[in-house]
Design brief:
alpha+beta, Pseudouridine synthase, 2 domains, nine-stranded mixed beta sheet, two-stranded antiparallel sheet, 28% helix, elongated
Length: 238
């Protein structure tokens, strides 16, 4: 965080975090707000994030404070990069590990050559159907609220762009891919679509966001390190 001061953190800063597994995006924003309130003694501090990550995902989140929150919308429009583990041969209602497997499919025919071919076909502009288990609004309610009540309805398709997709490694039915995509892309839905394209099934077994525009997760810090840094700043005379 360099030469950043408490005043700068309060008045307007852009912070890069590596979100821990199982944390919600709200958990992270809440943590930053709590740390700053504790350090400054000021109750009203604006804090927001530029793009949600599911609790089962890790990786880069951009958190803005103070006047920098005004630029959140622009940051949300940036392309995102992910490293995702796809599990071939089975599906889940949520398209990830949040729900149990609901169907299994053959995978013996999925050669590395076929996989590469089908992934290449996913590149470009397309209409993607978001997961029923998502934060999308359907008639004024969150899609996941309806899905958990058994009232799930398929959300309307949205236009997305898959700019790049490549296989990083494969271990049997677990395939690790790097995906560069536009805002609004659900990698869970991409996993589902890849399974269909392979005449099989697939779901997301792990997800890590590695970049938002030019911001990289390698430059991010953990919430624990942020708290230590702010505590140290408060204790160090200016």
């Amino acid at each position: 965080m360099g030469e950043m001061t408490l005043d700068a953190l309060r008045d307007g800063s852009r912070l890069l975090f590596d979100k821990p597994l199982y944390w919600t995006s709200f958990d992270l924003v809440n943590k930053v707000r709590w740390v700053l309130r504790k350090a400054t003694g000021i109750k009203k501090i604006k804090v927001g994030h530029a793009g949600t990550l599911d609790p089962l995902a890790t990786g880069l989140m951009v958190v803005c404070t103070g006047r920098e929150t005004k630029g959140i919308e622009g940051l949300m429009g940036l392309d995102k990069e992910y490293v995702a583990t796809l599990r071939l041969g089975s599906t889940t209602p949520s398209f990830d590990l949040e729900t149990e497997t609901d169907a299994e499919f053959p995978t013996e025919h999925i050669t590395d050559e076929l996989l590469e071919k089908r992934l290449s076909s996913m590149v470009g502009e397309q209409m993607q159907v978001p997961p029923a288990f998502s934060a999308k609004f359907i008639e004024g309610k969150r899609a996941y609220e309806l899905a958990r009540k058994g009232e799930g309805r398929e959300p309307a398709p949205v236009k997305i762009v898959i700019r790049e997709i490549e296989v990083l490694s494969r271990n049997g039915n677990d395939v690790v891919v790097r995906v560069l995509c536009s805002k609004g892309t659900y990698v869970r839905s991409l996993a589902r679509d890849i399974g269909i394209a392979l005449d099989s099934g697939a779901h997301l077994a792990a997800l890590r966001r590695t970049a938002i525009g030019d911001f990289r997760v390698e430059d991010a810090e953990t919430p624990a390190d942020f708290e230590k840094f702010v505590t140290l700043m408060k204790q160090t005379p200016s």
